[in-house]
Design goal:
The protein is α/β, with parallel strands linked by helices. The protein is built from 17 helices and 13 strands. It is globular. The termini are far apart.
Length: 421
């Protein structure tokens, strides 16, 4: 009897053959089919385990997006919906990823193949813990963070700092009453500044700063590295007083994230370094809307979405869709915290709030904090002022004049430094 629990995927495809035939080829490759009949492929197996093409919508003829063994002038583009029986993969994330986003990208008949969406059965979603902290749990671990956008930054320079230099950077940022400090994705466990020493120095400086400011600061320590040492690096952070760990999810893989979630007692900051290799080109790979679902099920509490007005490739409307995808309920799992990064400064809260209509975000501003002419504390304050203005419907120009009239020039100096939209 065929499994009624269906995993429904939507793909953008390009093919020289009829799109329905191309979709059937994909469905067969990723389930029970082979390119030639084999003795064991019985009617029973096809009925119970074959993926089925539910719908094909042809879009017209286009130039091929991807190279293949031959190069036609034009191919036929289409949107295909394919249904996979859940029985084929069970509730395992790696098996799911292999089925819906595995060998299919190599099929020579396909001149584009991109997984645009996935709908998962309730039983599959319910089998995974999802985030342990998410938005609310993260806010509870940071002082005065019950409302408003969270403000964070990245330790810069991202690599090469000596222990003494690192100490001074963390001290200055912690005294600025920032909400979150994080390692850069490139900073792992180098011999010149090992993770163990970073944890000792950062927790010491944060504890001292909290005695002065009364503001709790979260530091996300990067524990990306070999899988065998994942638990050891995690223990180094938590036993040393750390309150958050960070993982480069595309590099480590979803199973590593789910393993970390199984024993972590602190939030997991999910970085997306490497994701663009499978996401950037519109004719190939996996859409962010799909990836974030899998990363959420695996247990990420925070997930990077790029940023509006950023230095990276995604246009603002795509970043807005990324945020909306993260905030869309997924079964009974906790909602993760969207992380905005790359080129964030006082000019971006206004457009960001207009686009996403929420302050349930973490804005990571590197230069927007550290490069403020009045220092990091002024950088943090100016970002908070810009967010407050955005929420209140006040333009950045109006807010700048208002604060300046009261003698507070932090926002004005930030606008002079970074410009305004």
């Amino acid at each position: 009897m065929r499994d009624s629990r269906i995993i429904r995927c939507t793909y953008y495809l390009e093919s020289e053959i009829d799109p329905s035939a191309a979709a059937a080829l994909l469905a067969g490759e990723q389930s029970s089919g082979t390119f030639v009949p084999v003795p064991g492929e019985s009617a029973r197996i096809r009925e119970r385990h074959a993926a089925r093409v539910a719908d094909v919508r042809e879009l017209g003829r286009v130039r091929p997006s991807l190279p293949s063994r031959h190069e036609p002038e034009k191919v036929r583009a289409a949107i295909a919906t394919i249904e996979f029986p859940m029985e084929n993969v069970g509730v395992d994330l790696a098996s799911l990823q292999t089925a819906i986003a595995g060998n299919l990208f190599e099929l020579g008949e396909l001149f584009a193949c991109r997984l645009q969406s996935v709908e998962l059965p309730d039983e599959f979603v319910g089998a995974h813990a999802g985030p342990a902290f998410g938005i609310g749990g993260t806010r509870n671990l940071i002082s005065d963070a019950s409302r408003g956008a969270l403000i964070g930054t990245i330790v810069k320079p991202n690599v090469g700092l000596s222990e003494d230099e690192f100490r001074l950077v963390v001290r200055e940022l912690a005294l600025a009453s920032i909400d979150v400090i994080k390692d850069d994705e490139l900073m792992t466990d180098p011999a010149y500044l090992p993770l163990e020493r970073r944890v000792a120095v950062a927790t010491d400086e944060i504890a001292k700063a909290e005695q002065v400011t009364g503001h709790q600061v979260m530091y996300a320590f990067n524990i990306t590295g070999d899988l065998y040492g994942l638990r050891r690096r995690y223990d180094t952070v938590v036993n040393g007083g750390g309150r958050c760990v960070m993982l480069n999810i595309p590099i480590m893989g979803l199973p590593a994230l789910e393993l970390l979630r199984s024993f972590s007692s602190v939030p997991i900051h999910g970085h997306r370094a490497g994701l663009a290799a499978s996401m950037r080109y519109p004719g190939l790979g996996v859409d962010y809307a799909v990836w974030q679902k899998l990363a959420r099920l695996a247990g990420a509490d925070h997930l990077h979405v790029s940023g509006l007005g950023s230095k990276f490739y995604e246009p603002d409307d795509e970043v807005s869709r990324n945020v909306a995808a993260l905030l869309t309920p997924l079964g009974d799992t906790i909602t993760p915290l969207p992380v905005l990064s790359s080129g964030q400064n006082v000019s971006t809260p206004g457009p960001t709030f207009d686009a996403v209509q929420t302050t349930d975000v973490l804005m990571l501003a590197g230069g927007g904090v550290a490069a403020h002419p009045d220092g990091p504390a002024a950088g943090v304050r100016s970002l908070r002022q810009s967010w407050e203005a955005a929420v209140d419907g006040v333009t950045l120009e109006e807010a700048t004049r208002s604060y300046a009239s009261d003698g507070d020039l932090h926002l004005a100096h930030a606008v002079e430094m970074f410009g305004g939209r």
